[in-house]
Amino acid sequence: MTAPENIQRAPQPARLSRRTLLGATAGGVLLGGVAAAALPTAAQAAPAPRCYTRTEWSARPPKSATQVIAKPDHIVIHHTASPNVTDYSLSAAYAVQHWIQNLHMDTNGWIDIGNQLTISRGGFLMEGRSKSLTSINNGQNVLGAQTADNNSHTIGIEHEGIYVTENVTTALFDTSVLTCAWLCNTYGLDPHVAIVGHRDYNTTQCPGDVFYARLPELRDRVAAVL
């Protein structure tokens, strides 16, 4: 997942003061007596954001075993079509995650929550379907139920709220950028190709006209992080 750090030798200056030397070595490495700043690796550029696990939000166990599959080639952006609440707390994030799981398991009849990840309006990232977080960290995916006829090659992120006419919160969008950058880095994906809306695959309003119109911005910001 992380490429070896590639550090180039800095050119030797004619004179190097003690202050310059000490300042340079504080933030880099010393090569042949000359300080060179360490270049960031891909993992440093797109670190894994804080993700609250199923244990932390007290998920129900799945009805049957979760299937681990190969890495995805697309990241599907969804909205939950639930109310745009103004409670941005972690407890509110847990509550919407329980609502999603109950809806997917009890109403839709699925084995578990359908999506792999969820982002609340307060910007909290949470693990969705069982084994999602472990699979991502291993460069794999789990078979979800979030994009009909395309679950075998996609990973889905639910974003709390409905964005047909209203805009997403700044916290939600910022976390989406970090999450997508993490996934693109993990799976080796080009954000300008990989990040799509649910409506790109299925006939649906999801992720809402306003959020869908911001997907180019999302792709650009993810690319900037990478």
Quick overview:
GO terms for molecular function: N-acetylmuramoyl-L-alanine amidase activity; zinc ion binding. The chain contains eight helices and ten strands.
How would you portray this structure in words?
Belongs to the N-acetylmuramoyl-L-alanine amidase 2 family. Residues 1-45 form the signal peptide. A hairpin with a 5-residue loop joins β6 and β7. The chain has 8 helices and 10 strands. The relative contact order is 0.17. It has a 6-stranded mixed beta sheet with strand order 3-7-6-9-5-10, sandwiched between helices. Strands 1-2 form a two-stranded antiparallel sheet. A two-stranded antiparallel ribbon has the order 4-8. α5 packs across α8 (215-225). The chain has 2 domains: 1-39, no CATH class; 45-225, Peptidoglycan recognition protein-like (Lysozyme-like). It has helices at 18-27, 42-45, 90-107, 132-137, 170-187, 191-194, 209-213, 215-225, and strands at residues 28-31, 34-37, 51-52, 68-69, 74-79, 117-119, 125-127, 141-142, 154-159, 195-197. Helices cover 34% and strands 15% of the residues. The protein has 226 residues and is an alpha/beta fold.
| Major β-sheet annotation | 6 strands, mixed
CA-based shape? globular
CATH class of the largest domain: Alpha Beta
Strand order of the largest sheet: 3-7-6-9-5-10
Regions with little confidence, pLDDT below 50 for 5+ residues: 1-39
In CATH terms, the superfamily of the largest domain is: Peptidoglycan recognition protein-like
Class from secondary-structure proportions: alpha/beta
At CATH level 2, the architecture of the largest domain is 3-Layer(aba) Sandwich
By DSSP, the count of extended strands is 10
- Give the CA-CA distance, first to last residue: 13 Å
CATH topology of the largest domain: Lysozyme-like
Mean pLDDT: 86
How many individual helices?
8
Alpha carbon gyration radius: 21 Å
Element pattern in H and E: HEEHEEEHEEHEEHHEHH
Keywords: Signal
Signal peptide: 1-45
InterPro entries: Amidase/PGRP_sf, Amidase_domain, PGRP, PGRP_domain_met/bac, TAT_signal
Family: Belongs to the N-acetylmuramoyl-L-alanine amidase 2 family.
